[in-house]
Every structure is written in C-alpha cells, then in structure tokens.
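Long-time lurker. I teach an intro course on protein structure, and each term I like to show students one example going from raw sequence to a predicted 3D structure in token notation. This year I'd like something fresh instead of my usual example. Would anyone be willing to generate the tokens for the chain below so I can use it in lecture? Attribution to the forum is fine with me.
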Amino acid sequence: IVTGVQTCALPILSTDITAKLAKELPEYVIQEKDMGKGGSLSYVSGATVTDILNSVFGPLNWDSYVVEQFIQESIPFFQKVTKWYNPPQELITINDKGEKGVWLQQAPVAWVKVRLILRTVDEHGNVNQTIKESFGSKSVIGKQSEQEHIFKSAQTDALKKAEIGRAHVWTPVT
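-- Reply from a regular --
Happy to contribute to a lecture. Here you go:
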C-alpha cells in the first residue's frame, strides 16, 4: 500500500539501486565509433539504457519525457589556411589573431531536454521519486530521411546522460 509520494531532484536511491546503476557494463553492449585521427567514441545504445532501467526499476517504475526541444544555429568556425587546406584567395580573410583562413558555416544543432523520473518504494511503503534532467544533441546534417530523426536521436542522447551519465566516453590518441 502506497502511503505517500516524495519527490526529490537529488538522487535518493538506495545503495542497492545505486550499485546496480554503477555496475560496469558488459563489453558486448559498449559500441565504438571511429572519430578519426586515432580517437574513438564509446557509447551505449538507447535500447541498452531502456533495458537497464527496466531491469533495475521495472518497466512501470520509471518514465521519461521531453521538457523542451529546439534548433540552435551554429556559430561559424575559422579554418586556418594550411598546406592541406588552401581555399581560393578571394575567400581568405584574417582573424583577430592575424591568421589567414576562411569562416565556415556549421550545421545547426537539435537540442532536447529530457526529464527522467525514477520511482522506488521505501520500507514504509512511501513512493519516492528521483528526477534527473539532461540535455542531448544531434547535428542537423544529411538528407531529409536523416533529419527526420534528429529530435529522436537527441532525446536518446539526453536519456543516456540522465540515466547513467556516461553516454559518450571520448578516448583520445595517446
């Protein structure tokens, strides 16, 4: 019997649940993406996050929903002239550091803020809710068929960050 509901923005999860969430993931669920120049990006899929939440809390004891979503225009970046990048002379300008280069437009970014609600019941029958929020993003690139899914991709990214806080792990070249 549920006697009360307590909502807390800070984690009030039991040590048992915290340990389950902190448990190292098996290698077969960790995927790698080549980021070029010898670097890689380790990540887990949205399906893996859903599986973790279902196994730790049960499918009826957690929810997530979109709080807000928007498209942000990107700021152009300065690409310096190098021996590998030599644009036409009429495009070259000089930045505030005195470097020669070209200002290049970048793709806009889709942002989604997700709220994750985790419910547990304490020894007194009280339902406790832990609320976590996180932003996720996805560049708006590709053809229409790819762009149709930008908010879904950004939402999955935000859910991964809210749930385990380790959606992406950048491994630089050493």
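Some talking points for your students: The first strand starts at residue 5 and ends at 8. Residues 150-163 form the longest helix (14 residues).
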